[in-house]
Amino acid sequence: MDNSFALHIPDAELEPDPLDPGQIVSGSPEVTGKVIWESEDGSRVRGIWQITPGVVTDTEADEMFVVISGRATIEFEGGPTLEVGPGDVAVLREGDRTTWTVHETLRKAYAIG
Fold first, then answer.
1. Calpha distance 42→54 (Å, rounded)
2. How many angstroms separate the CA atoms of 31 and 71, rounded?
3. Exposure pattern of 72-82 as b/e (b: 16+ CB <10 Å)?
4. Which of these, 22, 107, 48, 25, lies nearest to 72 by C-alpha position?
5. pTM of the entire structure?
6. Three-class SS state of 12
7. 55: which DSSP letter?
8. 89 forms bridges with which residues in the sheet?
9. Which H/E stretch holds residue 70?
């Protein structure tokens, strides 16, 4: 997108973004998302991401996000445990290995890179 814009995140339509089955620890979580801006070289991405309840693992990117709705516990391998909910901002470091326990469908706005 070349121009400035505004988007109402809670109502944004998202598209399926299937998880790798190897990431699912328990439940049947489903992921949807929407990239709203990406740099030409792909190193910086802005978007919306949503996940339904369940437990999944991930290896993180250099990311900052704000939770719009829902709740989750994010456990970092060898590190802290974060409880996130609406209005919370979180910063993830590239390479962090995490386990997400999603208690209520979580929607976030994120910036990578």
1. 29
2. 15
3. bebeeeeeeeb
4. 107
5. 0.93
6. coil
7. E
8. 66
9. strand 63-76
CB-neighbour burial class of residue 15 (10 A; exposed 0-12, middle 13-18, buried 19+): exposed
Compute the Cα dihedral for 69, 54, 75, 48 and give only its sign.
negative
* pLDDT tens, residue by residue, 5-38: 899 999 999 999 999 999 999 999 999 999 999 9
Rounded distance between C-alpha atoms, residue 34 and residue 42, angstroms: 15
CA 41 to mean position of chain CA atoms: 21
For 27-72, what is each residue's pLDDT tens digit? 999 999 999 999 999 999 999 999 999 999 999 999 999 999 999 9
Tell the residue number behind the tokens 């944004």, with chain if given.
12
Return the DSSP state at 28: -
